[in-house]
């Protein structure tokens, strides 16, 4: 066994396996008659700071921001559709208005695409107009 540095003994030199009856092969014992030493585990390297990994997990990519923005816009359109159906059926639509208001208050992720940003701004404006119209109806009643 040869010590190669501060990490302990180096790997055992591969010997020619001795053949036992029945085709079973075993490694030859070392010169001292003992068994071969276990391989030492390699020291951990590469990961020095867990906080940097946690910070990387918190970074949101442009694709994820875009996906969240589209999901928010679709949700607002769904709430507007619910409100429309409630008003057409003669209901006040208070529950739909509350859901619409809650959805509108959600933070909209910024997107670099000006076309998408324009469409999302139009959806937000339409939702705000519907909420303002509902407030006028409430104050008139």
From TrEMBL:
It comes from the Bacteria. This is Flagellar assembly regulator FliX. Residues 1-47 are annotated as: Disordered. Pfam families: FliX. Keywords: Cell projection, Cilium, Flagellum. One of its GO terms (biological process) is bacterial-type flagellum organization.
């Amino acid at each position: 066994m040869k010590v190669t540095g501060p990490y302990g003994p180096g790997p055992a030199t591969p010997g020619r396996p001795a053949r036992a009856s029945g085709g079973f092969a075993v490694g030859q014992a070392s010169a001292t008659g003992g068994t071969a030493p276990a391989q030492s585990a390699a020291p951990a390297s590469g990961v020095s700071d867990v906080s940097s990994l946690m910070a990387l997990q918190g970074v949101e990519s442009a694709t994820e921001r875009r996906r969240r923005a589209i999901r928010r816009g679709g949700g607002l359109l769904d709430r507007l559709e619910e409100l429309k159906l409630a008003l057409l059926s003669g209901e006040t639509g208070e529950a739909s208005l509350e859901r619409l208001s809650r959805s509108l208050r959600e933070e909209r992720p910024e997107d670099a695409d000006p076309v998408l940003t324009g469409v999302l701004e139009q959806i937000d404006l339409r939702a705000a107009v519907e909420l303002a119209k509902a407030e006028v109806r409430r104050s008139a009643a």
